Amino acid sequence: MTRRAPFITLEGPEGSGKSTQGRILSARLRAMGRDVLDSAEPGGTPIGMQIRRVLLDAKNNDLCPTAELLLMFAARAQNVDQWILPALAAGRIVISDRFTDSTLVYQGAARGLGADVVYDVDRIACRGLVPDLTLVIDIDTEMGLARAHRRSAQTNDIETRLDQESLAFHRKVRAAYHQLAEDEPRRVRLIDGGRTEQEVAADVWSVVEPVIASLVSDVTR
Questions:
Q1: How many CB atoms lie within 10 A of CB 142?
Q2: Does residue 131 have a cis bond before it (omega within 30 degrees)?
Q3: Class for the domain spanning 7-220
Q4: pTM of structure
Q5: Which of 13, 154, 185, 213 has a CA that sits 20 to 30 A from residue 148's CA?
Q6: What is the DSSP letter of 104?
Q7: Rounded CA separation 35/196 (Å)
Q8: Beta bridge partners of 93
């Protein structure tokens, strides 16, 4: 049986710690001898990083929801074609910090564009690519935003356009992630992100390990 390598995504509200957990997971897999490609969205490729600057720069408050969605998918389409699909075909495990589920909850739910629009564009941009496993690092909205704002202040980060959205907006994001986990329980797993990095990482690994073992086994048969 021939199957592509595992594609795992990490999702979550602002300040959830998903990026940290992605780095921990990738390091653990590499320590086991696995070949891993790390990706992050919006961005990933050099072209995607240029699009990211437009999307996240706090000065671009006039960016309309439809343009935001299309720019997200423009960066994603480049990432899928240039990096993700070739890596998977070469047998590399791909760990991505965000993917289409982010667009589903941020633009589809919180912006009100709807899931159908997101899935329509996804079919063009991603050509059927769906993560094998999605880990949603869940966190209380106020706690997550406090973390995000503190991080931005410490680093003088200008990529804060989404961080600066209203509390109501971010509550919609979190609720949409919960709904996604309810709708797709086999693929999407909620992980409590309100604990120490080590505790969260242990839960992440307990979910990832059997999936990696199963999918890598399929690839090598």
A1: 12
A2: no
A3: alpha beta
A4: 0.92
A5: 185
A6: I
A7: 27
A8: 36
